[in-house]
Write a structure and sequence with these properties.
Elements lengths: L2 H4 L6 E4 L8 E2 L10 E3 L12 H6 L4 E4 L11 E4 L3 H12 L8 E6 L4 H14 L4 E5 L2 E4 L2 E3 L8 H13 L4 E5 L2 H5 L8 E6 L15 H9 L5 E7 L5 H4 L6 E6 L6 E11 L2 E10 L3 E5 L5 H15 L4 H10 L7 E3 L6 E5 L4 H12 L6 E5 L7 H14 L2 E4 L9 H12 L5 E4 L3 H10 L6 E5 L6 E4 L2 E4 L2 H11 L2
Parallel strand pairs: 2-3, 3-4, 4-5, 6-10, 6-11, 7-10, 11-12, 12-13, 13-14, 18-22, 19-20, 19-22, 20-21
Antiparallel strand pairs: 1-5, 7-8, 8-9, 14-15, 15-16, 17-18, 23-24
Amino acid sequence: MKLTDLLCGIKHTVIQGGDKDVTDIIYDSRKVSEGVLFVCLKGYNADGHKYAADAAAKGAAALLVSDDVEGVGNDVTVIKVDDTREALAYVSAAFFGNPAKELTTIAITGTKGKTTTVAMIKRILACAGIESGTIGTLGIIIGDELIKTDNTTPESYEVQKAMRRMADSGCKAMIIEASSIGLKWHRVDAIDFDYGIFTNFSHDHIGGAEHKDMQEYLECKAMLFRKCKTGIINRDDEKWQEIIKDATCKTETFGFDKNADLTASNDMLLSKPGFLGVHFDLGGKREASVDVAIPGHFSVYNALAAIAVCADMGVGNDAILEGLKTVMVKGRVEIVPVPGNYTLLIDYAHNALSMENVLTTLRQYKPNRLITMFGAGGNRPKVRRYEMGETSGRLSDLSVITEDNSRFEDVMDIIEDIKVGLAKTDGKYVVVPNRKDAIKYCIENAQDGDIIVLAGKGHEDYQEIKGVKYHMDERELIAEVLEELK
């Protein structure tokens, strides 16, 4: 593709050189090959401008820069822009043929609920016969293929590449988790989203390299509503008006507030062995009696957001109800079928706050016993282990302490630290260092009406020990244990 075609519509200055044929767009100097456009990005720890000369030496046809670069030679074209991250989004969109124009595009921002809402929308659309691809915490999912990513919202090149694959494979919609960092760093630029969703706002991602304060964090989330045609907003969140203060899109609202466009009422928890969920009555622009297969009152909000989008897309109530009744989010209070009269689930809770949230939610279902199996990561602050031990000891009837990415530490040393936190409570616990053995212990000792949480791994399918990641999927371990116990 011609460089001038990639740059069409982007304000830029040609520092040296002329038009070139571009074979690909690269922002990691280690991946540079003959004929590529190398984009110099500034990151947390690295500045791509430092590698411009190296990229030129490897045969890059052109360099996209925001700062002056030296030692690149005269045979490489150098293009200067104000912000290379912003420019990357637009040149990537052009390179892949603007795939967003071929898809219904949906972006979700908020502190919590993004992953679950993505899954709900995807499931509802599937029930309506609409194929969709997703991008988020779980990776890029196109059909049965999962492409792992480093960030909740990948770099714009990866987003555009994924959308091109989605469109080419027959997808009609794309649903993406738009993190505050993703919005701040232009990863979802060059997409005029059909729908933007705001789930909620609470304390997160403050300090360090991410956001300097809560105000900036909120302002980054609000950017989405200047990048979409319709904004769908949680009216019950106290920050909802600030989120849409400078919005350029049409807005719709959802919540328990009777003034919302889509409302919930009469919510109640649903529980039976192997099923935990929530029920509510839907009102406003759609009316229905809704069951959601994900536990917790907060699931009502995620469901309302999903319903709002799908209703706007013309999806009927039958598909909406079937989708929410059968939705499953990998690694998020994910229920695994077992033959006994108890409930076994997998959850990603891997710190005290997330553990507090999931265990408090499950307590509301009044289990016979709440059993939590967990470990803690090695080479991480010890205070996390103390806190996790104390949280589980306070909220669980039994804690089963095991391994979880011990890295370069001894598992038993980590377990001793967890026990420090447990000792601050009256909580009962047992130690089973091997994770498969710990799962077997939980299953063998399950009683009628128990809820057992395997916490910490969630969607992860590996165990990291001494610098090596070994394959380990808890779903496979459960199947092995059940087979052994037959």
